[in-house]
Design brief:
alpha/beta; 7-stranded mixed β-sheet; binds S-adenosylmethionine; 14 strands
Length: 358
């Protein structure tokens, strides 16, 4: 599922018109809880690939990989393409019944001007703005390889009215209006993979209680942990949203990490996302002052940004409470880093953690 920012104006005769559509996604919101279910194929694909390598090395006999916050399942399919062997089962969990309903049908769409448009058969479909930077030869080869993997798992099916709910209608109308050559194609998961990519209702906070059926080599909760604690740093800095604070965030994170630790097998990995809301956490007045930092002292602060100046004294945790909990007692060690892009800066953040043998 996808998210979009659309600059929407009204012209002098009062009719709406669209101006400078910025393709950053197509908004799809769970009607029941308001969560944004945005995702795309091969999101942060380097980390998916290294997670797969790790699991194949440490679990050669096979394992289950639990992908929490999987939305409709683009992440499950992308990960599966790196571990196509049937001994690796990918189980996606989400609390959004909307997303699960759509995902269980097993049909997905690819379309122009999006992060994963390069997966369509013709490599020349335009990509989302953030993907448009000149691609090196190596990147083009990598995209072709991902496309090959995608088509091993998926096959094209004809468009049908029943797939209209896959993407947000409003966002799509805007994109089609702006782009005469807009293309949308539909793909279904091949039969032999449907049993290996399971979708279930499940809350990450209950990960410690699942009945293990086989060794668990990986637990993912990417770009979603902020839903648990309500950390809305992005909304505050970009849209002046009121600051939401989770008062017992350290306890919450310690509990979540202990559940992950309990369910993962030794040498298994816990993987998080590279979204700013996963790494920079708003602090409350009760937080230990020695553990907090003003926004202007974080690497995310941009002096020339007016919003940033306004929020320069806003308090954040120096170290993410999730990272603190993961590193506590030496139970996990960070083994891979990814790039977090925010406000024009690129910052390396740890996203893959190995459970240390006990
Ligand atoms: C922004 S999407 C991220 C999708 C995907 N993981 C990715 O990185 O592209 C967040 C997803 O997490 C789900 N979610 C939120 N809280 C959850 C929880 N406590 N347990 C399981 N899923 C949750 C939402 O319903 C949503 O589908």
């Amino acid at each position: 599922m996808r998210t979009t920012n659309v600059n929407f104006n009204t012209n002098y005769i009062g009719k709406p018109y669209f101006n400078n559509v910025k393709f950053t996604g197509i908004l799809h919101i769970d009607k029941k809880n308001g969560n944004i279910n945005d995702s795309w194929f091969f999101r942060d694909e380097k980390i998916l690939a290294s997670s797969a390598d790790h699991i194949k090395t440490f679990f050669p006999e096979g394992a289950d990989v639990l992908i929490y916050g999987c939305s409709v399942g683009e992440e499950n399919i992308s990960f599966k393409s790196f571990v196509p062997e049937s001994k690796y089962r990918v189980i996606g969990y989400d609390t959004s019944t909307d997303a699960l309903r759509i995902g269980k049908r097993g049909v997905y769409s690819l379309f122009s001007n999006w992060h994963d448009s390069y997966l369509m058969p013709n490599m020349n479909y335009p990509l989302a703005e953030c993907e448009l930077a000149n691609h090196s030869k190596e990147e083009c080869i990598k995209m072709q390889e991902l496309r090959r993997k995608f088509h091993e798992i998926m096959y094209e099916v004809p468009a049908s009215e029943e797939y209209r709910d896959i993407n947000n209608k409003y966002g799509f109308i805007v994109m089609k209006y702006q782009n005469k050559n807009f293309v949308e194609k539909f793909y279904r998961v091949r039969d032999k993979f449907t049993k290996q990519i399971d979708l279930r209702f499940g809350n990450f906070i209950n990960v410690g209680q699942i009945k293990k059926e086989r060794p668990v080599g990986g637990i993912f909760f990417r770009n979603a942990i902020y839903h648990l604690c309500g950390n809305n740093v992005n909304e505050v800095l970009n849209f002046n949203a009121p600051v939401q604070i989770c008062h017992n965030i350290d306890k919450l994170m310690e509990y979540a990490v202990s559940c992950v630790h309990k369910t993962l097998d030794n040498d298994g990995i816990f993987v998080i996302g590279n979204h700013i809301k996963e790494h920079l956490y708003l602090a409350d007045d009760l937080a230990d002052k020695s553990k907090t930092i003003s926004f202007c002292d974080t690497p995310y602060f941009v002096e020339s940004n007016i919003k940033h100046q306004e929020y320069r004294n806003l308090k954040f945790y120096k170290e993410s409470p999730l990272l603190t909990a993961l590193l506590k007692d030496g139970n996990f060690e960070p083994i891979k880093y990814s790039v977090l892009s925010a406000f024009g800066s690129k910052i390396e953040v740890p996203v893959m953690f190995k459970k240390v043998r006990i």
